[in-house]
UniProtKB/TrEMBL annotation:
The lineage of its organism: Bacteria, Pseudomonadati, Bacteroidota, Bacteroidia, Bacteroidales. Belongs to the binding-protein-dependent transport system permease family. CysTW subfamily. Its main location: membrane. The chain crosses the membrane at residues 12-32, 168-198, 218-239, 251-274, 295-320, 367-389. NCBIfam families: phosphate_pstC (TIGR02138). Part of the binding-protein-dependent transport system for phosphate; probably responsible for the translocation of the substrate across the membrane. It comes from Parabacteroides faecis. InterPro entries: MetI-like, MetI-like_sf, PBP_domain, Phosphate_PstC, Phosphate_Transport_Permease. This is Phosphate transport system permease protein. It is a multi-pass membrane protein. It comes from the Bacteria.
């Protein structure tokens, strides 16, 4: 009977592991499937076209260039290797500035003809209008429909997903924001975390350990939104006033909050690893004349380095993947950071803030899934690297 139950338990564990593995594979497959769709999306907003006068020899415009033109940052075609001609920006909503309602028709039946006429007579025009109003005998030149490229995303320096006529999905500002906040959090939390772990494992008496250990473990269970609220009402004002900054929502504020959140994980895992050091090794070190601190540095830490490394990985994973707390205290500015004391936006915060508003299946939706894929790859590479380093140390 006992063997029968053991077989049932083994079978249950096998099924559970198989289902879990299969589910993870499905999630990864779906993530990358949705993400890859971004590169088949058009640069210009779907259902719209960009057109110029036939005399204009510009045939290619990048998403960032299109945005700069429509934001009046580029005002002459010679700035984009065209003729020395002032750029006239035309949006579909501007049509009534050129033609009366009577000229457009009661049911807008003359709109295609009027748009064609306008583009044909204005040499410096760039027109953005719905494709349904493209006349059969269009007098201008419709810019060729291009797809979002790998370089547009991975080398893009701007993130404007709702920009019209060409949304911009640039990874670099979000990636740099994520790395800046995460690295700052680890730099702040790692020394304190390891120090507290050493204290609990080797220095604190039993009563102190029994009091502090549950308190530290309890901190790991506090919801991240609570940490975010604490950071917003306490840490952010302190940083703003203490450093005399225009705003307190900065990468540094995010790093401080994440460091506090990562501390319980680092302390708990590192302390457990240190306590696995054989008592005989510690006693042998002390018997040879080593001090307690020399024993900690020369014996305990090297022996438990694998566990400490795991604590670091878990801490970094917590920092990189954190969403709500970071969303509340970093300012959410999707720009390339030039200082640790500027607002930034991280990848998880971007996904959380924008996924609910992105139309399912659209370019914005797919770009957010691609951000998730990038985050997955970063975490995977980090785990593999640390495991490799840990195994080398054991050898």
């Amino acid at each position: 009977m006992r063997k029968f139950f053991e077989k049932i338990v083994e079978g249950g564990l096998l099924i559970s592991g198989s289902v879990t593995s299969f589910t993870i594979l499905l999630i990864v497959f779906f993530l990358f499937k949705e993400a890859s769709g971004l590169f088949s999306s058009p640069v210009v907003e779907e259902g719209y076209v960009l057109a110029v006068n036939k005399s204009n020899d510009v045939s290619h415009l990048s998403p960032e260039t299109i945005m700069d033109i429509f934001d009046a940052k580029i005002t002459n075609w010679k700035e984009v290797n065209g003729k020395d001609e002032e750029i006239l920006v035309f949006r579909f909503s501007d049509l009534t500035q050129y033609y009366s309602e009577e000229e457009l028709g009661d049911e807008f039946q003359y709109v295609p003809e009027k748009i064609s006429e306008l583009v044909g007579k204005e040499p410096g025009i760039i027109a953005f209008f719905p494709q349904q109003y493209l006349a059969q005998n269009f007098q201008g030149t419709v810019l060729p429909e291009e797809k979002i490229s790998l370089s547009d995303f991975f080398a893009g320096t701007k993130w404007y997903p709702t920009s019209a006529p060409a949304p911009i999905f640039g990874l670099i500002p979000l990636l740099l924001g994520t790395l800046l906040v995460s690295i700052g959090a680890i730099v702040l939390s790692l020394p304190f975390g390891v120090a507290v772990a050493i204290y609990l494992a080797e220095i604190a008496n039993k009563r102190t350990r029994e009091i502090l250990k549950p308190v530290i473990e309890l901190l790991a269970g506090i919801p991240s939104v609570v940490y975010g609220f604490f950071g917003l009402v306490v840490i952010v004002p302190l940083i703003q006033k203490g450093l005399n900054l225009p705003v307190g929502e900065t990468a540094f504020a995010g790093s401080v909050v994440l460091a506090i959140m990562a501390l319980p994980t680092i302390i708990t895992v590192a302390e457990d690893a240190m306590r696995t050091t054989p008592r005989a090794m510690k006693e042998a070190s002390l018997a040879l004349g080593a001090t307690q601190w020399q024993t900690i540095y020369k014996v305990i830490i090297p022996y438990s380095i694998s566990g400490i490394t795991s604590a670091i990985v878990l801490g970094i994973g917590r920092a990189i993947g954190e969403t709500m707390a970071v969303l509340m205290v970093t300012g959410n500015a999707a720009v390339i950071p030039t200082s640790f004391f500027e607002p930034v936006r991280t990848i998880p915060a971007t996904i959380a803030a924008e996924l609910g508003e992105a139309p399912a299946g659209g370019a914005h939706y797919q770009a957010l899934f691609l951000l998730g894929a990038v985050l997955f790859i970063i975490t995977l590479l980090l785990s593999i690297s640390v495991e490799y380093i840990s195994s080398k140390r054991k050898m």
